[in-house]
Write a structure and sequence with these properties.
With about 180 residues, the protein is mainly beta. The protein contains one helix and 14 strands, in the order E-E-E-E-E-E-E-E-E-E-E-E-E-H-E. Strand 2 (about 20-25) and strand 3 (about 25-30) form a beta hairpin.
Amino acid sequence: MSGGVTLMVHALSASSTRGQLSIGELRIPCALGRSGRRNGKREGDGATPFGVFALREVLYRADRGLPPRTGLPRRPTHKHDGWCDEPADRNYNRRVRHPYPASAEHLMREDALYDVVVILGCNDRPRLRGRGSAIFMHVARPDYAPTAGCIALRPRDLRLVLQRCGRTARIAVPH
């Protein structure tokens, strides 16, 4: 694990919902937001934001597989884990516990998309209301269907990338 790596994400075209993630010589297909990539990210716009973001933590479904090998902090998800996506809530763009009174995603989903999730340091320090929440790197649908603004990879590829990441790893989505 080299730790200080930068993952680069390039779209296939200016408005594409598909892209390529590169880490060193490795090139991996990925899914992007349904609205492509965008400056000025807004809650619910479906865009993957431009920028450079820290890889904060890896969450994984312990009931569906072994923990990913990585130098990043990692922890299993539980049925009560959620992520608040309500801009008016004091816990906007933070992990919360279900049941939660405001709108919040469930991190332990029935589909496989969140079997492995990397929390990205997007709109978290500082956290600005309405500027996007729950921007993750996670498992892609088999057809690489667009995400709600995240970056998604095949399960095997996501685990391969995580093996190369340590605590100072970053992901870049350039213009």
